[in-house]
């Protein structure tokens, strides 16, 4: 059951990423009119209330073209910035529809982005975590775990408390990402056609490999630097036994700790071209992955660093620092496979009574 659970989650995540990226590349509009902001008006009207749509177009025209040239052609970079702003405004409308318009008008775009990301992180955490816990511990718990291995309700509530306190700060990082992207400071692009499908795939894997490497080191340094572990990372390592881990432990960090481990996702946007929707789906996938690797189910999906690898990290402390894959741990000599771990623990326990009798 564990093999199917984890292999299925990996396949679903990759299939979702591929399908949505293809939809984006196939169906996004193919450009903004060369004689002004007419297409921007379509984008704005689709995502903003009437008065806000008009203001969006006027602000876009002034900020990207200048006061004296309202009909000057837009460069592709300017088109991208307008697309990013319109998409973010659309997402704000979806998440903040309940907020009175006068309240929203008083908030800056950055604050709206922060609130929206906070709401979406909470929904992802509680809904997905709740479904995961139900199926893992209740629907299939007797098939997946031995007696005493399922975490107590008190342990799960403690993890939810720690994560809930950290969420407002977690939400700052994606809000900062959007701010940097809208300013044009990153190498993020809005359409797969901007680079072509082949380069899009190359960019994706370069970004993923770099993020994997830097997440490994940010995680490892939080262990190796004593004050970093003492003041930040030890909160997450309170859950150091198999029966204390649950999907809700995935975000149960000191918020500074969680942000430090996620910073490579932001840092690499300045150095590697990255498709905007693909990047957002990766962040969504990371939210799923943090649930996955804390459920203590051995999925046997090497070279993917599944939950059993991460459980070993929580019990051994100095092994298996990796994010999605095992190759960086293998490169730096910190990988401990579940099979090697089981052999090591069996050697420490010594031979069982049955083995001793067999030797007599």
Automatic annotation (TrEMBL):
GO terms for biological process: lipid biosynthetic process. The chain crosses the membrane at residues 6-24, 118-137, 197-216. Keywords: Membrane, Transmembrane, Transmembrane helix. Pfam families: FA_hydroxylase. One of its GO terms (molecular function) is oxidoreductase activity. One of its GO terms (cellular component) is membrane. Residues 205-334 form the Fatty acid hydroxylase domain. It is found in: Membrane. Belongs to the sterol desaturase family. This is Fatty acid hydroxylase domain-containing protein. It comes from Prototheca wickerhamii.
């Amino acid at each position: 059951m564990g093999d199917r659970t984890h292999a299925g989650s990996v396949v679903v995540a990759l299939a979702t990423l591929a399908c949505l990226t293809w939809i984006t590349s196939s169906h996004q509009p193919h450009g903004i009119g060369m004689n002004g902001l007419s297409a921007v008006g379509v984008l704005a009207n689709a995502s903003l209330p009437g008065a806000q749509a008009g203001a969006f177009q006027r602000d876009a025209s002034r900020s990207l073209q200048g006061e004296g040239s309202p009909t000057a052609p837009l460069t592709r970079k300017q088109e991208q910035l307008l697309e990013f702003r319109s998409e973010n405004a659309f997402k704000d409308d979806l998440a903040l529809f309940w907020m009175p318009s006068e309240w929203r008008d008083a908030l800056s775009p950055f604050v709206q982005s922060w609130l929206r990301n906070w709401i979406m992180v909470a929904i992802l955490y509680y809904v997905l975590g709740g479904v995961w816990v139900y199926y893992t511990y209740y629907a299939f718990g007797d098939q997946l775990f031995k007696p005493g291995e399922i975490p107590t309700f008190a342990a799960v509530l403690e993890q939810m408390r720690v994560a809930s306190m950290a969420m407002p700060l977690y939400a700052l990082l994606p809000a900062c990402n959007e701010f940097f992207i809208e300013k044009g400071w990153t190498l993020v692009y809005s359409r797969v056609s901007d680079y072509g499908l082949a380069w899009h795939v190359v960019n994706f894997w370069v970004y993923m490999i770099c993020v994997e490497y830097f997440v490994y080191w940010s995680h490892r340094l939080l262990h190796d630097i004593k004050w970093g572990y003492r003041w930040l990372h030890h909160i997450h390592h309170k859950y150091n036994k198999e029966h204390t881990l649950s999907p809700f432990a995935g975000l149960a960090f000191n918020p500074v700790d969680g942000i430090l481990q996620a910073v490579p996702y932001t840092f690499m946007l300045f150095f590697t071209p990255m498709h905007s929707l693909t990047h957002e789906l990766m962040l969504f996938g990371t939210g799923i992955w943090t649930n996955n690797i804390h459920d203590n189910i051995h999925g046997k999906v090497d070279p993917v660093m599944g939950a059993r690898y991460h459980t070993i990290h929580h019990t051994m402390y100095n092994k298996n620092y990796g994010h999605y894959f095992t190759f960086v741990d293998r490169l730096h000599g910190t990988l401990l496979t579940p099979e090697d771990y089981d052999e090591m623990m069996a050697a420490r326990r010594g031979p069982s009574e049955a083995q001793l009798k067999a030797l007599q």
